[in-house]
Design goal:
With 425 residues, the chain is of the alpha+beta class. The protein has 13 helices and ten strands. It has helices at 4-10, 35-41, 52-66, 93-97, 129-142, 248-252, 262-295, 304-324, 329-337, 341-366, 372-385, 391-395, 400-418, and strands at residues 19-23, 26-30, 110-111, 119-122, 161-170, 173-186, 208-214, 228-238, 298-299, 421-424. The strands form four sheets. The protein has a four-stranded antiparallel beta sheet with strand order 6-5-8-7, with no helix packed on it. A hairpin with a 2-residue loop joins strand 5 and strand 6. Helix 1 (4-10) runs antiparallel to helix 3 (52-66). The longest helix has 34 residues, at 262-295. The protein is extended and about 75 Å long. Residues 1-97 have low confidence and may be disordered.
């Protein structure tokens, strides 16, 4: 199974800054559990309009990596389009070094096996009842605000979950990881350093307090270990008890088209999960067909330049993701894949190169290659949908050839799936 798909499935991005739970003397990067539900419902769209371009870019990048064309969205990792094969077995050095698949004599690297009528079996994917209930619950409470459903008429007590804004300062200067807005904190959970949660007991929603606290001596950040700090905290509201009781009035104020009560909210959540389930099913079908397809092919060798291209791009992506978690790339790949970065890249990049060579070979045989005109039309459509005025603004420093290979993957994969014999388990 292709591991690049897992990379982005594991990586979760949020509209909010990272906040840090202060436990056991270490800083653990965390996100508010309700972030996904807020993005899910607020404004009746997954990506808020103000974040449309960034969300679309992330979705494109995710898919590109999932398809194995990791270099397509990686600036600086662009392939040259050297001379084509002369057809007599000799190639110029430019053609030999080129990693553009359309310029490559892929038949000298792969002998295709049977690729039509591939027989695969795939498990059906359905909405899980518990997951459905959990999503409805998270979405409801994740969209509570001070003005809509939040408790505002009593002081904070132990056991309450409070929504807070806070800023931590040392010697009057805000320190990294010490600031967040709209954070849900359960009083008495011990999530934050000693004195933080106790200092909010008795505070009324809407009030702001300064908490004079000291970090533990063994705290993971040496700049803060044992240091006196001041947290300025505003209690925005107290979350209502999560007892499964939903207010239709509160739901009607979420601003979701067609959702004014609990029944409609549950249907809205079900539709979202069902769409995801169908997408997961389609992904599983594609993966099963791709595995069967690759198992039938025989490779003589793989162009070193192509392998290196994928390796460099994947390393850049993984390093960036690891950094967002506050760890190095080796730690990241060891945690998710049980191997260090070098071992992971060696396996991944060669596998990705083989797959794309085989797909290009099918495209050549079945006349599925993407013409310049077709490529420009696809890019124009995507640029327009993403809010860009021109193709050039949309693709940035990425070459059109990388996009051509990205779209070709889709086209050939669809062809293999359409011609496969799929059995549902």
């Amino acid at each position: 199974m292709r591991t690049d798909l897992l990379i982005y499935n594991k990586y979760i991005s949020s509209e909010h800054e990272n906040v840090y739970r202060m436990t056991d003397g270490t800083m653990e990067s965390a996100q508010n559990d309700s972030d996904c539900s807020k993005i899910f419902l607020r404004g009746n769209q997954m990506c808020k309009s103000a974040q449309k371009e960034e969300c679309m870019k992330k979705k494109n990048v995710n898919k590109l990596l999932a398809l194995g064309l990791v270099s397509a969205m990686t600036a600086g990792m662009l392939a040259g389009c050297g001379a084509k094969d002369t057809g007599n077995g000799s190639e110029t050095k430019a053609a030999t070094d080129s990693t553009a698949l359309k310029d490559m004599d892929v038949d000298k690297y792969v002998t295709l096996g049977e690729y039509k009528g591939l027989a695969v079996s795939v498990d059906t994917v359905e909405v899980d009842e518990d997951e459905w209930d959990t999503l409805v619950n998270n979405v409801y409470y994740g969209n509570i605000t001070a003005e809509n459903g939040g408790i505002m008429d009593r002081a904070v007590e132990t056991g309450d979950t409070v929504n807070i804004d806070y800023e931590g300062k040392k010697d009057g200067v805000a320190f990294d990881g010490g600031t967040a807005q709209g954070y849900d904190l359960t009083i008495g959970s011990g999530s934050f350093i000693a004195g933080f949660e106790d200092g909010l007991i008795g505070v009324m929603p809407g009030e702001t307090v300064d908490l004079n606290l000291t970090f533990p001596e063994n705290y993971g950040n040496s700049d803060l270990a044992g240091q006196a700090v001041v947290f300025t905290v505003t209690v925005n509201y107290i979350q209502p008890a999560q007892d499964g009781e939903f207010s239709d009035e509160v739901i009607s104020n979420f601003g979701i088209d067609g959702v004014t009560n609990e029944e409609e909210l549950r249907q809205y959540a079900y539709d979202y999960l069902n769409e995801n389930a169908q997408q997961n099913y389609e992904t599983n079908v594609q993966q099963a067909v791709m595995d069967a397809f690759m198992a039938n092919n025989t490779f003589t060798s793989v162009p070193e330049a192509l392998v290196q291209k994928y390796s460099d791009a994947a390393e850049s992506s993984i390093t960036s993701m690891a950094s967002s978690y506050g760890v190095d790339a080796d730690t990241f790949t060891q945690y998710y894949y049980g191997q260090d970065l070098a071992s992971f890249l060696a396996t991944y990049s060669e596998e990705a190169a083989k797959q794309d060579i085989a797909l290009q070979a099918v495209a050549n045989k079945e006349k599925l290659n993407i013409s310049d005109e077709e490529l420009d039309q696809i890019l124009l459509d995507r640029a327009t949908a993403a809010g860009y005025d021109t193709i050039e603004e949309y693709i940035g420093e990425t070459s059109k050839e990388d996009y051509r290979e990205y779209f070709l993957y889709d086209k050939v994969t669809d062809y293999l799936v359409e011609n496969a014999k799929i059995t549902n388990n």
